[in-house]
Amino acid sequence: MRRTLLLLALLSAHLPTLAAERPASPEEDATLINAGFLDSHPDIMYRQWGVGALHRNDVKAAMDHFRRAARYADKPAQGYLGEMYWFGVDQPRDPVMAFAWMDVAAERGYPLFAELRDEYWATLPLEQHQAARAQAQALRAEYGDAVARPRMADVLRKGRREMTGSRTGSMSNNVDVVFMDGGISRTIKADRLYDPKYWDPKQYERWQDETWMKIRRGTVQVGVPTQSTATEAKP
What we know:
Number of domains: 1
Pfam family, one: Sel1
Distance between the termini: 16 Å
Keywords: Signal
Protein name: Sel1 repeat family protein
Strand order of the largest sheet: 1-2
InterPro entries: Sel1-like, TPR-like_helical_dom_sf
Oligomer: single chain
Strand content: 5-15%
């Protein structure tokens, strides 16, 4: 990978800080993940796979995973795609497509993505503005919140039904849920696994907004690492 993406650097720097200010998010909770949480959260799952592929310098796989995450309204994944097109990561630069993806990523007003979108727009030649707007509109038809959030909501509802089963009425009780992890039987508290903010679509959207509204660009700069640096960043 020729460049360290700004989003990759920023999210690596900010997410641990945010986690220190509140209980660990699902992305940082190995027990939740091993209990099958990601099976019903394809937005997070595919984004994690995409970041892992980036660290392995597998750009094609990374973009495929980010596109899958983007279908489930994952704004960071959409932002990653924008940056990869902007910097031409193992492909020719495509500023029009970069703006279009970042415009979709910024539609909720998250500061990080909105600032990058505005920066891309400001540097686009005037003759590319119409094409950029048209491309953004085309992406919104498949990846914008109007269609992607209902898609994600359906997965959350289905996953909650499948995972809770007869326990639905016991969500507030301190009951143990047993799951298998590498052939070993483990347990997790039901109120932790089934926290409504991760399963109720409206609460999930509010949780996303609360998280991403706090992440700003700051002073992190884009770097140009050596091949060995990228390799050492494997998860």
